Amino acid sequence: MRINAKDFASALLLLALAAIGLWLNTDHTLGSARRMGPGYMPMLTFGLEFFLGLCVLGISMVSGPDPLERWTKIDFVSLFLGIAVTLVAYPLLLSVSPALGNNWYALGIAMIIGLGVMAISPGWRKMALILAGMTVFGVLLDHGGLFLAIAAMVVVSALADPEHRPLGVIGSVVFLIALCWWVFIYELDIRVNIWPTF
Amino acid sequence: MELLLDNLAHGFGVALSLNNLLFALLGAFIGTAIGVLPGIGPVATISLLLPITFGQPATTAIIMLAGIYYGAQYGGSTTAILLNLPGEVSSVVTTLEGYKMARNGRAGAALTIAALGSFFAGSVATILVAASGPLLTEIALSFGPADYFSLMLLGLVISAVLAQGSVVKSVAMVVLGVALGLVGTDVQTGQQRFTFGIPELSDGLNFAAIAMGVFGIGEIILNLERPEVRSVLSSKVGSMFLTKEEWKRATPSVIRGTIIGSALGILPGGGASLASFGSYMMERKMSRGRNEFGNGAIEGVAGPEAANNAAAQTSFIPLLTLGIPSNAVMALMVGALIIQGIQPGPRMVESQPDLFWGLICSMWIGNVMLLVINLPMIGMWVKLLQVPYKYMYPAILTFCAIGVYSINNNVFDVYQTVFFAVLGYAFAKLKMEPAPLLVGFVLGPMMEEHLRRAMLLSRGDPVVFIERPISAVLLIVAALALGLMLLPGLRKKKEAAMAG
User: Fold this and answer.
1) Does B390 reach chain A within 8 Å, measured CB to CB?
2) B323 to each of B155, B331, B470, how far by Cα in Å?
3) A39 to chain B nearest CA, in Å?
4) Which residues of A touch B462 (CB under 8 A)?
5) Is residue B28 part of a domain?
6) Percentage of residues in chain B with pLDDT exceeding 70?
7) String of b and e for B264-301 (b: at least 16 CB within 10 Å)?
8) CA A68 to CA A48: how far, in whole Å?
9) For the residues of B351-407, what is the DSSP string, one character each?
């Protein structure tokens, strides 16, 4: 008998989330059914989620083979390394320079490092580069300004598609900067720096 | 009747203001564009453009977002007929007969009947929304907290039951959505729940970040991993006019499609894709041209296209009258309303007459606009397909990033989006349907509120949910819907239906 790997993994995800939720919920007062405290609804929700996780787990045993995509060794290693590096880098950056706590710089930089590690494996490269592009945007926006942030995001995310050519990327950058200036600055007037400030 | 006419006149007054006309046109235009383009759907687009609408009054914002939804139904049919490429899920069945018609040299006729059928269905649905709105509102006003809780529970159950894939997993996704909705400050005690001491989370997770991460960015990554399918226009469009025989065959199909589409749209959990499929099944069974199905029967285009447009509009009924979103797009509308400071619910028709009647009238106006946007400009829309995806995705990414930042002017929201993109990607890989999650996230906080109130009133006795007749009926329907889907026979039928 082959188990349904997709359902099995879903069940593990659901059970893990429900367990974390129930554990975190021990901080909140439950109250009674009549006067519900802040912990009552989370208890019901995560309890139900746990039960559903068990149901999916049961179903995965009989719902036929549906294998996950094959993960290579490098996929595994880079995923765990990426997560670990992010988790280590965040407090490390904060302890090196508390100023990085402002504006979530430490978080953004830690995420970029972690996503960079994941991009080493071909299996994660597209996802990691797209998300790294977006994170770079977040890190650069405040001091680098909108235009620089857009340019950096487009360049990093363009690396995700090997079909991109330098000229096309430059064209995209120019076009998107012009479009975003028109939509977000000229029409909507959002409050954000346009040019770099140091 | 007279009151209805008065109200409609008021609505047209609102909808015909220059600003609202402009945004209806913009919505219809964007909707058509994303309808034509495969790989970006109305859910992603609406969440993408959500922040842009904040600067506008609520009515204008909803008019534009609604235009995107029903505009996408028009646009989706164009590529389905010409290129055998469904731009949206709701036009999957249109490819079956529509593309065959195009191969037979009748592409023009198929496009015309799709547009005119949609227009007819849209007009009828508009009247239906106008007539049933105040009626349903009156019923809803007699609802107590227990009834509301049961109604929302029904909405959640049906949105899970009708989602693609395994029912149990979809129910789990709804519950996960409710769980995500718990993050933030507890309304009654002010205690912080699941915020990890992060001040940005005390108002809850960012709705736009979830929608954009899961549906917008997650989708980009998946699209990049798939090899791009490039199709070229193989057949000529041909004459846009229908023959007398075609008119005779298509007219009853359009009427049937309108009826079934309107009905399926009102159902919580229903929507455009369910309607177009239902209509296709019906036409194949009972239309005069049923023997020609598979060889380009015009009934197979006329019915489903009318149905999906009718459903796109009637699915606003549960939202506008009860405050219950019936699908992911409507969940986004709730999000847009709440951000604008309007609590969707039965009092909306009375307290926001501009919004309710203005939206209804703008839907009709939008349908006229779509007719003009679509038929004479078919060539331009087909050209749009030649823009390679590698130029589209950086643009989508840019709009997501700036849009989500501009809601609170906080980069934390950008990182939240990244987080939910990873989650959305994982959901897709594990075949977990994300649409019910969004509905759960929107309804969760309201459900908790009503549950607490109901239990306080009943002194902690849960029997109240069965004692009140409205609540009892709603719970029975929810239980039936869930029970039926667990029967193997029906489940197979649903799977066949969803596979198109």
Assistant:
1) yes
2) 11, 10, 17
3) 8
4) 33
5) yes
6) 94
7) bbbbbbbbbbbbbbbbbebbbeebebeebbeebbbbbb
8) 26
9) H-HHHHHHHHHHHHHHHHHHHHHHSTTHHHHHHHTTS-HHHHHHHHHHHHHHHHHHH
ipTM over 0.85: yes
Neighbours of B240 (CB within 10 A): 15
The model's pLDDT over B44-83, given as tens digits with 9 standing for 90+, comes to 888 888 888 877 888 999 999 999 988 888 888 888 888 8
Among B53, B182, B485, the residue to mutate for chain A (most A Cβ within 10 A)? B182
* Number of inter-chain CB pairs under 8 A, A vs B: 182
Among B342, B430, B187, which residue's Cα sits nearest to residue A5? B430
Q: Which amino acid, one-letter code, is at B248? A: K
Which residues, at least 6 apart from B121, have a Cβ–Cβ distance to it below 8 Å? B254, B257, B258, B261, B262, B305, B306, B307, B309, B310
- Beta-carbon separation of B418 and A134 below 8 A: yes
Residues B459-470 as b/e (b if ≥16 CB within 10 A, e otherwise) read eeeeebbeebeb
CA dist., res. B19 & res. B389, Å (int): 32
Question: Across chain B, what does the average pLDDT equal?
Answer: 84
Tokens of B102: 């195009």
Residue B405 covered by a domain = yes
- Which site among B430, B433, B459 would you substitute to test the A interface, given the most A Cβ atoms closer than 10 Å to its Cβ? B430
Predicted structure pTM score: 0.86
By C-alpha distance, which of B476, B387, B184 is closest to A38? B184
Give the helix ranges, DSSP H, for chain A.
5-24, 40-62, 73-96, 105-118, 122-158, 166-180
Note down the domain range covering B331. 2-146+207-435
pLDDT average, residue stretch B294-300? 85
- Domain count within chain B: 1
pLDDT value at residue B132: 82
> Would the CB atoms of B455 and A130 count as touching at under 8 Å?
no
Task: Identify the three-state secondary structure at position B171.
Answer: helix
Whether residue A38 and residue B406 make contact (CB cut-off 8 A), yes or no, is: no
Q: Cβ distance B209 to B417 under 8 Å?
A: yes
- pLDDT of B494 reads 58
Q: How many CB atoms lie within 10 A of CB B357?
A: 26
pLDDT confidence bin for B500, thresholds 50/70/90: very low
For A157, the closest of B168, B397, B422 (CB atoms) is B397
Q: Is B236 exposed, middle or buried (0-12, 13-18, 19+ CB in 10 A)?
A: exposed
Percent of chain B with pLDDT over 90: 16
Spell out the domain ranges in chain A: 5-62, 73-187
Query: How far from A51 is each of A16, B178, B239, B308, CA to CA, in Å?
Result: 12, 15, 59, 36
Task: Measure A117 CA to nearest chain B CA, in Å.
Answer: 15
Q: For B77-125, how does the pLDDT look when each residue is reduced to its tens digit (9 = 90+)?
A: 888 888 877 767 778 888 888 888 888 888 888 988 998 999 999 899 9
Q: Once rounded to an integer, what is the mean pLDDT over residues B296-316?
A: 89
| Residues of B with Cβ-Cβ distance to A131 under 8 angstroms | 217, 418, 421-422
B143: left (phi over 0), alpha (psi -120 to 50) or beta: beta
* Inter-chain touch B411–A24, beta carbons under 8 Å: no
Cβ atoms < 10 Å from Cβ of B191: 15
Residues B435-452 pLDDT 10s: 889 888 988 888 898 899
